[in-house]
């Protein structure tokens, strides 16, 4: 590896070890990591990303359980404070999340009756979709080497016309920022470097009906997001580990580090909330598991959690996920993660590809070797 590449890696490792500024972390990656497929990078995301827009007076939304809807009709405003404490999963706005390094947004949208307005939801109505999308677009315009994955997971009270209207709105809003579908549906053919060179900054996953000729909306199958659906940390970790062991190298993958309270769980803890009973215990327990993970083949890609920034000292979520990418350098396994694009990218890095499946022999200076060792074994 060239001396300039060594210097870049060393500077980056040093800066991120002591920094909490991840506003431009993708653009600041060493060039070698920008060439890796986006589905082989470790990317921090948030679960129910827009729930910070929910207030204690928000209306009960159509995605809430039948029990909650029934209680809402009977008890009216008295049920809202209880539901609110279990619906909010994030404390940061979209703009703040981007500034803190989040690059994947888990979105759920409902048609608000009777206004017909599109609003984000999670048990209760959050804000109308325009302002958060404006914040995301403005951030990307100011940070042109950053990429965001918008995953619209659920649609409520939608008909065919609502889907057409929302899709037109998304196309009009993000325009040429939208990354087209990868060739043959193989996500491993797309890297940050490839996207940046073409000024693509948004991967838009649309888990609903898509018109046959729309090449800028990615179907659900290209980015699986298995849901643990449990209140048990042990069951969640087991579920996540088994999922990673089976994941394909040709699509993206979301690892959901979340606990999901059932209605009966909420009833047993009426004076508590999601942060205290689910998110905090989950996050404190999962951080050691995350540190043991790696990106790339059979490794993590997008990782999401609730209240990702609630304790930056004991739970440095974004930093932990971003720094996992340097295991690709430390383990000298970049080649194994690249799939069909590896020969071209090896040439760009001036690394001889070697036989299929072989690990490229990249030699680092003693300084970089020490930093990489400390990163993986702090």
From TrEMBL:
Source domain of life: Eukaryota
GO MF annotation list: phosphoric diester hydrolase activity
GO biological process, one term: lipid metabolic process
Protein name (Swiss-Prot/TrEMBL): PI-PLC X domain-containing protein 3
Organism: Frankliniella fusca
């Amino acid at each position: 590896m060239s001396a300039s590449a060594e210097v870049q890696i060393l500077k980056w490792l040093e800066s991120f070890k002591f920094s909490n500024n991840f506003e431009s972390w993708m653009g600041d990656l060493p060039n070698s990591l920008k060439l890796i497929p986006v589905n082989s990078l470790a990317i921090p995301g948030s679960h129910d990303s827009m729930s910070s827009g929910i207030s204690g007076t928000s209306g009960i939304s159509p995605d809430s359980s039948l029990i909650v809807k029934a209680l809402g009709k009977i008890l009216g405003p008295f049920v809202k404070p209880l539901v609110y404490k279990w619906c909010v999963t994030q404390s940061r706005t979209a703009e703040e999340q981007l500034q803190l390094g989040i690059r994947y947004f888990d979105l759920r949208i409902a048609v608000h009756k009777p206004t017909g307005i599109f609003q984000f939801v999670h048990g209760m109505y959050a804000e109308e979709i325009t302002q958060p999308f404006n914040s995301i677009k403005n951030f990307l315009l100011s940070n042109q080497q950053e990429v965001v994955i918008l995953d619209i997971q659920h649609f409520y009270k939608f008909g065919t016309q609502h889907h057409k209207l929302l899709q037109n709105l998304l196309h009009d809003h993000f325009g040429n920022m939208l990354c087209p579908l990868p060739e043959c549906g193989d996500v491993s053919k797309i890297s940050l470097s490839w996207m940046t060179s073409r000024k693509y900054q948004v991967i838009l996953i649309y888990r609903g009906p898509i018109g046959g000729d729309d090449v800028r909306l990615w179907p659900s199958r290209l980015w699986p997001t298995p849901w643990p659906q449990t209140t048990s940390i042990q069951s969640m970790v087991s579920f996540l580990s088994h999922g990673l062991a089976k994941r394909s190298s040709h699509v993206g993958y979301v690892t959901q580090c979340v606990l999901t309270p059932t209605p009966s769980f909420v009833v047993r803890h009426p004076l508590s909330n999601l942060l205290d009973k689910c998110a905090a215990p989950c996050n404190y327990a999962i951080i050691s598991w995350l540190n043991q993970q790696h990106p790339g083949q059979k490794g993590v890609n997008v990782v999401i959690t609730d209240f990702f920034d609630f304790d930056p000292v004991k739970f440095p979520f974004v930093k932990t996920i971003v720094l996992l990418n340097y295991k690709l350098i430390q383990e000298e396994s970049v080649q194994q993660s690249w799939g069909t694009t590896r020969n071209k990218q090896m040439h760009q890095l001036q690394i001889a590809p070697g036989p299929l499946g072989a690990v490229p022999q990249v030699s680092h200076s003693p300084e970089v070797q020490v930093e990489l060792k400390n990163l993986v074994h702090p």
